[in-house]
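Saturday, quiet lab. Running sequence design on the structure tokens for the scaffold JK sent over.
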């Protein structure tokens, strides 16, 4: 790798190019397998690529000059059209592998019938995915992305060194996460209520569960942006990113149980729990356990120490920030940027 390449990658504009190129390659790499429909993981990875591309387009928006075809909103709409098939694949895996082995035979028979009806819905969703991949909008997105990468159009700010502007890229996304009202969805004081906390959580989630789901999406957006630059910081930064990922994961687990119940109600009727009481209890128990995990994590991350620590790490600058000694700066910069390039090329932590 030449020094000119190292110097270019250290600029804000070339980091934007690298991110868009990386995620567009991921999308292209999995598209063929999605069309073959041999492994549900291919669709998951394609959607991950689209979500990360959307995050890059949003995060680097001050740098980019792109057409209406290549915007975070356009990518998001296309990704959502692929979501139904992915949701059904997740539901099938949960019902078949996580819950079916733990219910009595009578409920297994009911579950098998449900899975048969799920497969029928999946065939329809599969056709929708195929239509989306063949659509003019999806083809236009690929064409425009390739054209932009061949001749990137950027604003003047693109020439600034990444070390000078990285906090400006990261802090808005972090702020959106930390100021989200979903952090304050909690059980009210019990008062005279004799209901157990697990039942009160069920009632709370019925009313405010959507706000927690939105907090999960904010955590995902922040995580994607933070992960893009993880190689430029140290272990403390990586630990904070893992905690943001933990927020996304545990809230996703709570959401998954609710989505599964809604699916069962749609397929089997609103009284499905009477015919599958063991499954209903397993879902409630799983939700309660995830809620307790979330409360512990929430208390830790709401504390001022965690917030101040993350802010300080981001603001202290990256490892290739300029030093007074020009020779030392050159060596340190080349070493750090090389690590960053290797991390970008490896698609590290891009599977969820």
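Result came back. Writing it out in full:
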């Amino acid at each position: 790798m030449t020094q000119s390449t190292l110097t270019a990658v250290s600029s804000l504009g070339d980091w934007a190019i690298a991110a868009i190129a990386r995620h567009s390659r991921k999308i292209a790499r999995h598209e063929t397998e999605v069309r073959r429909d041999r492994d549900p993981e291919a669709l998951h990875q394609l959607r991950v690529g689209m979500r990360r591309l959307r995050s890059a387009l949003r995060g680097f928006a001050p740098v980019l000059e792109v057409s209406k075809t290549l915007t975070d909103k356009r990518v998001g709409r296309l990704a959502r059209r692929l979501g139904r098939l992915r949701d059904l694949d997740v539901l099938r895996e949960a019902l078949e592998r996580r819950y079916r082995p733990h219910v009595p035979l009578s409920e297994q028979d009911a579950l098998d019938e449900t899975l048969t009806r799920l497969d029928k819905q999946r065939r329809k969703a599969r056709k929708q995915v195929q239509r989306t991949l063949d659509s003019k909008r999806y083809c236009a997105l690929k064409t425009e992305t390739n054209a932009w990468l061949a001749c990137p159009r950027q604003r003047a700010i693109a020439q600034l060194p990444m070390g000078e502007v990285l906090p400006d890229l990261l802090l808005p996304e972090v702020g959106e996460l930390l100021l989200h009202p979903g952090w304050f969805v909690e059980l009210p004081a019990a008062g005279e209520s004799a209901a157990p906390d697990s039942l009160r959580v069920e009632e709370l989630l019925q009313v405010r569960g959507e706000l927690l789901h939105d907090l999960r999406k904010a955590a995902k957006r922040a995580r994607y942006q933070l992960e893009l630059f993880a190689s430029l910081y140290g272990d403390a930064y990586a630990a904070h990113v893992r905690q943001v990922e933990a927020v996304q994961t545990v809230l996703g687990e709570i959401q998954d149980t609710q989505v599964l119940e809604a699916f069962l109600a749609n397929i089997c009727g609103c009284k499905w729990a009477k015919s599958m009481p063991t499954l209903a209890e397993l879902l409630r128990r799983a939700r309660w356990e995830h809620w307790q995990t979330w409360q512990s994590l929430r208390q830790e991350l709401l504390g001022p120490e965690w917030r101040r620590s993350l802010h300080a790490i981001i603001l202290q600058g990256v490892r290739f920030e300029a030093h007074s000694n020009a020779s030392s700066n050159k060596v340190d910069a080349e070493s750090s940027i090389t690590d960053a390039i290797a991390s970008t090329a490896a698609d590290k932590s891009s599977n969820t």
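Notes for JK: Confidence is low (pLDDT under 50) at residues 1-9, 320-350. The longest helix spans residues 235-268. Ask whether to fix the surface positions before the next round.
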